[in-house]
């Protein structure tokens, strides 16, 4: 991988170019949806591979780093497209919380799975097929907590750790970005406009391996999957999902 495309600024710019070229219709659907029913933008991995193979491979290998960059690029693409329109803000609105979702991963055993992934797959982007055997209640999750540093007066946020049951760790030092390093350990909760947007709906479902795809005598395994935002309440017990 070249150092240039792995740079977050360069990668984000390439992502925005891809979204504007391949996903213009989806971005328009986001902008002109007035009922907040469209809150995600689906991208086809085959199209991303065609557009920029290195960027696609980086996304597959480090989704936790590059998927958030795609969300930022989606926001920038919405704003860019909105500047080209002449309709009023009541009809065309930028969805700040829109999420980019990856579809159609290449049909390769390392990416398309019928078995539940193991510890060696942690941190990788995979496609898993299974049957929903249980759905939980829809709950509310705090996605991040905003703090204000009492020394430099900067504001920063700490994200929730989904793997630790949505636990938000208390920061040990100031995390305000910038050239001047602040080693303060004194923080207070910040009063900001983000406070009203830091909670989202989530739902836990359990997916089991499809018996018809397993070898004779194999006991199907199951895994708990967390659905967030617009994916909540999209699946019910008995559904075959990917």
Walk me through the structure.
- This protein has about 240 residues and is an alpha+beta fold.
- The protein has helices at about 5, 10-20, 25-30, 45-50, 55-60, 65-85; strands spanning about 40-45, 100-105, 110-115, 125-130, 130-135, 140, 145-150, 155-160, 185-190, 200-210, 220-230, 240.
- The strands form four sheets. Strands 5, 6, 10, 11 and 12 form a five-stranded antiparallel sheet that branches.
- A hairpin with a 5-residue loop joins strand 7 (about 145-150) and strand 8.
- The longest helix has 21 residues, at about 65-85.
- The protein starts with a helix and ends with a strand.
In short, what is this structure?
By secondary structure, this protein is an alpha+beta fold. The chain has helices spanning 3-6, 8-22, 24-32, 45-51, 53-61, 63-83, and strands at 40-44, 99-103, 112-113, 127-128, 130-135, 139-142, 144-149, 155-159, 187-189, 199-208, 222-228, 240-241.
């Amino acid at each position: 991988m070249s150092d240039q495309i792995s740079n977050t600024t360069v990668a984000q710019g390439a992502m925005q170019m891809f979204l504007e070229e391949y996903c213009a219709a989806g971005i328009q659907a986001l902008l002109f949806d007035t009922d907040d029913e469209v809150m995600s933008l689906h991208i086809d991995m085959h199209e991303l591979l065609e557009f920029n193979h290195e960027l696609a491979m980086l996304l597959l290998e480090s989704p936790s780093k590059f998927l958030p960059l795609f969300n930022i690029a989606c926001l920038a693409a919405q704003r860019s497209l909105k500047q080209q329109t002449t309709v009023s803000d009541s009809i065309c609105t930028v969805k700040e919380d829109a999420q980019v979702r990856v579809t159609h991963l290449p049909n390769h055993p390392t990416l398309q799975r019928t078995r539940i992934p193991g510890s060696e797959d942690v941190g990788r982007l995979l496609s898993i097929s299974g049957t929903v055997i249980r759905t939980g209640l829809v709950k509310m999750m705090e996605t991040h907590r905003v703090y204000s540093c009492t020394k430099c007066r900067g504001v920063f946020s700490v994200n929730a750790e989904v793997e630790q049951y949505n636990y938000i760790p208390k920061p040990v030092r100031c995390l305000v970005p910038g050239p001047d390093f602040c080693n303060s350990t004194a923080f207070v909760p910040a009063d900001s406009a983000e406070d009203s947007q830091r909670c989202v709906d989530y739902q836990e479902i359990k997916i089991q391996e499809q018996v018809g795809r397993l070898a004779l005598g194999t006991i199907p395994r199951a895994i708990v999957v967390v659905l967030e935002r617009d994916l909540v309440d999209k699946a019910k017990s008995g559904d075959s999902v990917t």
